[in-house]
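== Polypeptide entry ==
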Amino acid sequence: MTSTITKSDFLQFRESPIHFWAACHDEQTSRSFNEFQQHLAAQGRETERLAYTYLESVVLPAYEDAELIWQAEYTDGPFYAKLDGLIHDKIRNTYDLYEIKASTKPDKHLEDIAFQILVCEANIRINHAYLLHLNKDYLRSGDLQLADLFVCTKMDEDIAGVRDEIMTAREACVRSSQLQDPHNLEPCYKPKDCPCRHLCHPDLPAYPIYDVPRISKDKLNTLRSAGILSIHDIPNDIELSEKQQAVVDVIRSQQPAIDHRSICESLSEIAYPIAFLDYEAALTAIPAYDGYHPNENLAFQYSLHVIETSGADALHYEFLGDGYGDPARHLVAHLSQHMPQAGSVVVWNKTYEQGINTLLGRSYPEYEAFTQNMNARIYDLMNIFRDGHYHHPDFRGSYSIKAILPVLVPQLSYAGMPVAHGGQAVHTWNLLTAPEISTSEKQQLRTELLAYCRLDTLAMVEIWRELQSLC
């Protein structure tokens, strides 16, 4: 059992007390630092490095007589805090805390800094607390300008508003860590991502209530308190939306529900030539190239399948940045040579692809007309499933392409692929573009990334063909 409670421990307790208990008692069985989290951690380290320079060169000189203390450590009973930056005002003998975040939204991190402050106050005199975060309005042009890249947001009043709540939660956190077993702690609501399913969801049925799309925690709690865990057992008097009820009905009947007319009407909107497009992009906290704000997506790869006319084979085009120069600039130039100028651009989740197109057009104005034209022609194939025109019990309430593909096109699968989801794609691209990588490793990683992105668009082609066969 852990005897020290860090900020990360406390935040995990706030998210899920039972997960926190499992971590304290070495009962977590599947929690891992996934590839996307590794990417975010690397972005955080880069932000901290620059923030140190910012504190030293921009913030510290504004004090009359002060020193910057980096990563000081304090305890308050069982609570432990390792701080980012402290500025010691030697004249007043007080301290200002600077909590660094690779984020543009300070309100997301109130509990982080409140925890730190409470630990600090047991040891030193705190004057002010600041979140040092990235400036959402900063647009890179040339060398990074640290004075404009960062913003210091004073958090004193916000902390005062949650102080009592955090103090109470700290006490509850300690009590939870000391429990002999977690049976009185509330289970989590996401069994697929649960790090201790044997504790949260030991008797999960084949079709659990968690598969009902967008079901609220209140409804889940109502069902759980009645001992109902299976979709088959949901009472008729539980109010569900039309889409939720459709999923429940399909799972209960174990028969697909297919609205042929709506599917065919929707597909009739697609015009030849049909371009099936997918991007891979890395969220970059610190803009690496001109024309980008903090925390925007840098597109590094695309896959494109094009069907020119009815009955024609799909032609494939692709691009993958190799780490030499701005990958997105090269990507949009390459794509502009292969994307048809007319017809439909078919994607899965148009919010993402349209967002990448808009960003490409803004960052590279010479391609703005091209990217706007693509956006005007986008058709979202996911909508067939999101809008409820096609339900299948094995979709389990999901309209992710990874849930749809193995049901409609079982001969295609992401299973066993070295790169099988977006987080792995970003992680692999980071490895691919690392300066120390060997030529053979680079070629292997390129092969894996190209295969993954190619499957994304090939999956859309084959799902579209399967849907077309219904018309």
